[in-house]
Amino acid sequence: MEHDRELSQISKPEEFEPHQKDHEAVNSVYIKEKSNLAAVSQSSLPGKTGKQQEPLAICKFIVRRPKLAFGLTLGWNIFVMFLSAILIQTGYDLLPIDFAGIPLNILDDRAFLRVKAWMNRGEDGTVLSNGADVGGERSSVADNLQIFYQADNVFTQEHLKTISDFETKLLSVNNFEKYCKADSRNSDNNCSKPLSIVRFFDGTFGPMFNDPTFSDIVGKLSTAQNSPQLNEVLQFYLGKEAVINSTTSTAKSSITRTMIQFGYPLAGYDEQTGDLDEQQKKVQTFLVENMRDLLIDANENGLSGLTVTYTSGQLFSYLIQSQVIKDLMLAAGSFLFIFIFMLIQTQSLFLTSCAVGGILMSFLGTNLVYRIILDYQYFGIFHVLSIFIVLGIGADDVFVFNDTWRATAHEKHERLDERLSACYRRASKAMLITSLTTTIAFVANAFNPMLAISSFGIFSGILVMVNYLSAITFFPCVIIIYHLYFENWTWPCFRCCKKKVEPTNLTEAEKFDGHRKNFIVRFFRGPYYYFVVHKIARWVLLVLSLGLIVFFVYMATTIGPQEEQIQFLKDSNNFQKASNLNLEGFRPSSDDNVIQVYIVWGLKHQDLSACHKTDSKCKGKTVWDDGFDLNPKPAQVSLLQLCKKIEDMTDEENGDLKIRRNSITGKLEVKCFLDRINDFLINEGNNTALYTPAADLSLPTSETKMTTFMNAHPELYNTSAISPNFYRYFETGMSYWLNNGYSGVASYDFREYNKLIGVVNDTFDTQQISNSSVLTFGTRLRYAAVTVNTTLQSGKLGFEKGLVTVEAWEKFVNDEVAKLPPSLSGGFQCTPNRGNTWHWLKVQKSLVFSAIQGIIIGIALALPILTIATQNFILGSLATMTIMCVTVTVVGIIPLAGWKLGVLESLNLSLVVGLAVDYVVHLAEGYHISKHTDRSGRLRDMLENVGISVLSGACTTLGASLFMLMAEILFFMQFGIFMFCTIGFSLIYSLVFFTVVLGICGPQNQTGSITPLITWVKNKLTGRNKYDVDCGVCGGQGFHTPVKNGQ
Hints:
Layout: H1 2-9, H2 24-36, H3 57-64, H4 66-89, H5 110-119, E1 140-150, H6 157-171, H7 176-179, E2 195-196, H8 217-225, H9 228-234, E3 243-245, E4 250-252, E5 255-264, H10 276-290, H11 292-301, E6 307-312, H12 313-328, H13 330-346, H14 349-373, H15 381-408, H16 416-443, H17 451-486, H18 508-512, H19 519-532, H20 537-557, H21 574-584, E7 594-601, H22 633-647, H23 651-654, E8 670-671, H24 673-685, H25 703-711, H26 729-738, H27 748-753, E9 757-760, E10 767-768, E11 776-777, E12 780-793, H28 799-819, E13 828-830, H29 837-870, H30 873-896, H31 903-929, H32 935-964, H33 970-1001, H34 1011-1022, E14 1029-1030, E15 1039-1040
Antiparallel strand pairs: 1-5, 1-6, 2-5, 3-4, 7-12, 7-13, 8-12, 9-12, 10-11, 14-15
Helix pairs in contact: 3-4, 3-16, 4-14, 4-17, 13-14, 13-15, 13-32, 14-15, 14-17, 15-16, 15-17, 15-32, 16-17, 16-29, 16-31, 19-32, 20-30, 20-33, 28-29, 29-30, 29-31, 30-31, 30-33, 31-32, 31-33, 32-33
């Protein structure tokens, strides 16, 4: 209180103490104003009605010790920056960036846990390689490089020669032989030939297909087409409209493709225990350093009339990671735009620099909370959006505080701390409401089961609140420092051009009745106010607004779910073109990206209990089904019958299962290892050179059958060393089949079934093959799978139709497994290939649900928050209705733009309410705090005091979002469109629809006020009745019953 008396008693400059000289200029102004206003009626000042409120403690401190306050807050920001730098320098993973993928997984979904179990089935190190002599280095596919060639007709001699030469050029790059997939048909690790139409001319399929000069194109392709086996291969290279006709001598297709395969394990890595991620990274490095430039050149310049497009999983991953960084640089453009716009608005380099610096420091502070306190170890592509979001929201907060500060210059405040307190109360409340509602909208995503979305919601929610705290602590100090030291300062070379701060010919009534020099403020107070309250114009504006709302409501009803796969890049991008060609450009073939259902035995759901909550790459722990066993005869018979049942299904039985029928054989496509074992053993038993007479070795296996089999192969089995209690007879026959009689040459069955079967050592039965020190028999079958091809393509399936098939498969497998013997009772179905399609369908559904949930939560919470903040139910309801109009408009834009409700759209919609709330909240608060009681006066005050802040905040966010439209990553560009539309329509609905409605039916006096309700609740809680009066000697902190009879 001593400092307050000092401020109130100052009347002459020479009365300042040394520590008070900082306030000399400003306080002399306030003292002068105090004497000049003595003749002005208190009731005529819009900023004053009654007793002046006690200045806030924080405002007193900032005014009394401005340099200290500024130093403390600036020092905190610098501390955050240096702490971040030190942590990074010491090797702490402060910013755990992962742009390689988007973890959109529902961790407790059975489809996810099943595929997780299948994909990591060999991680515990117990599973043995099936035939070490025939697997080996680069035997599995690590990546596929697909190259698409397009022309009017690619099947010409010139074009086929060009394709052949380009393949040769790619295969001749340095170290290709170290990364290519090995040819499984021989054991010398030579590179397998590319899958290409050229194979029908280089002798790969026999002497009759040897035409290196491509002189008989029609003849060779017609011969292949007439061969059932080769025709199925040929389809892979033919466009949808291709024509191969020997009668008309026609061979024509507008497109064909080449596929070059890369393999693992690389040299020095083990197939079962080698780090696959590390090997794939090496393959990526090889592709980038040796092939990428050749492919880019062919894509940009073509090849002798051929248009070339290419794709590869590793090259795509490299592009996404590098492109995210490039698109992130667009934030620099947004930053520069906001800086310049803020500089124009504040007309101060000091204010602008501090404000923008505070916004950026909010990001660092948020990351410290997110990474260290909350222990989140993931920062992905979605988090990049928060940079653009905080730039817009942070600038909005700065404008609100700065414009409120300017507005208080036109009110009567006797002391600087009183003026700052008035500004602080209004601005901090307005910013709190917008920050709180925006935070709630973001944090609502924290309950999403997918890490990419939940972590983004938490990070963005924290960021908004940290920015708010910065705006109410650091920026007030900046304002006071500027006011005391820099407000009347200019660069020396511009001082001759400096404008006068305040015209001297204004009357005090004009000055304090809102006469502002800012033309935008004058526009909102004058022309715009009269326009929106005009008796004709306001109804025209209302009708136009309602028409716009009705139109977008209709558009919103036409929105449909996205059935295509998630699209990361623009349609003009090479990789997106390649993806579209892969899905739409070719005839159906056995190599299509169809969904393949696995019916699995031997595994249970993966155990993820030991994984960190944000570790999306954690593989978890394999849980084996110890009851799985195919040695019992009933198990073998039952499984054979199940395979037969699937193969022989009628079209009606197939129904929702959507099993594909082979175009050549006409049979349903089922890959059953037990069928192949049975056929193999039958043929083995018919080998009269080994068995005389022929032996019955067909399934089910038995001790008698397999003893006969092993006795026929003394070079492999020492039957005299086999225990009488030997049990693994089925596995003995299975291993012989899979390893092609241990010949060392991979068979067709090995290539097709090797990955579907896994064995481990059996404590009692496993023994070495007699002629090998590596190979064994009598192992235990740990897992096995039967696969079924469907007609569905993973890139064309939406969740509404897809989940019907998922449930049909779940019911079918559960019903059939329930009929099997106990040793097969643990079977389940899943889709490990093509990105786990079954799980992805559930992710799509969850995203749509989350978007709807986010909108409902945001709007449902907006109503009570706005009602409490404005203390008026009518005002809160009108503001909430305006937010709903913005939301439905943005939803309607989705089908209007030709989009469907997919992953990106769902995520964007979950943020709409949070972004739409700001401007209508500022206007509602401005209407609420007006000292007028009639709607016209309140509306005018609202537009005068808040209009410029709303317009400035919208302009900065709109400008920031424009830069995102230049992004190559489609999600960033689409988010930029969403952000631009959300902010743009928020501005339109706020300044037009909401303003007009307030002018027509805005609450007046105490209409709609909840103050009486608040007072009633407060009185009930404190026990006060209507006869009690305030205590006059308690500092306003108590009450008592009225005094009677002088007591």
